[in-house]
Amino acid sequence: MDVNAIRTVARREPGYPPLLSELHDPPATLFVRGDADALPEAAVAVVGARSCSAYGAQVARTLARELASAGLVVVSGLARGVDGEAHRGALDGGGRTVAVLGCGIDRDYPRSHAELARRIIASGAVVSEYPPGVEPAPWRFPARKRKRVGAVRVWLNHAVRPCRLGREMPCPCGPGVVSEVRLGGLISLLRRVGEIDPGGVDSAPS
Fold this sequence. Notes:
Layout: E1 7-10, E2 29-34, E3 43-47, H1 54-69, E4 73-76, H2 82-92, E5 97-100, H3 114-123, E6 125-128, H4 141-150, E7 154-157, H5 180-192
Parallel strand pairs: 3-4, 3-7, 4-5, 5-6
Antiparallel strand pairs: 1-2, 2-6
Helix pairs in contact: 1-2
């Protein structure tokens, strides 16, 4: 697959994430590198701090691996820290992952994650509402969060915050140590979320 090939998916076209279209201000067009068919699939967002601890990185990677193994698409932001580990975990689990950028679709940001972006594109997708040539800027990153929320039914974050983006969703992962028992409960919660059935996960990962 050509990692630099870009396609567009307009709102109301097949392949546009249906949950994203429910937001009050959905992007008119998405720019995609990779497999656009990954966008409308059942997905879970795994996000967190850039400067996370080794423990936080381990939990993000383990959780994403289990979710991907269960057939869910893992959505994150390609950033350093928890986001990058979530993408790596999904790839470790042989699943698909989608990276949502806060810059132009032709910019692998941060540059240190260019190789990770290529791995994501091989089976999933990198997506942005910004056309080629748009540089990263701090004010664009809240819009990136809007797209991640709009693409998923469940939002897993190391620190729960209200998702004031036009619709409600479960945010089941709070601060603190995630024990095996707690992680198993999290998977059980995911089973009950509408239209998500991670049937391949029966217990917490060892």
